[in-house]
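In the current project phase, work has continued on tokenised descriptions of protein folds. One protein thus recorded appears below exactly as we store it.

——
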Amino acid sequence: MAAAKVKPVQATEIKDKKIAREVIEQIRKPIPESVHRRHKKLRKLVDSMTRR
């Protein structure tokens, strides 16, 4: 079985401007504070498990 080759999408291939705008909006959206808090808790948990 041959491996499927995945071609990277070039910016010029995105024809639909509405989709392009939505993607850019999602990328620029700030990360919510709740996510920062959750990551901080997970970081503390991982640190406590990996320290000896």
User: Anything to note?
Assistant: The CA atoms of residues 44 and 50 lie 10 Å apart.
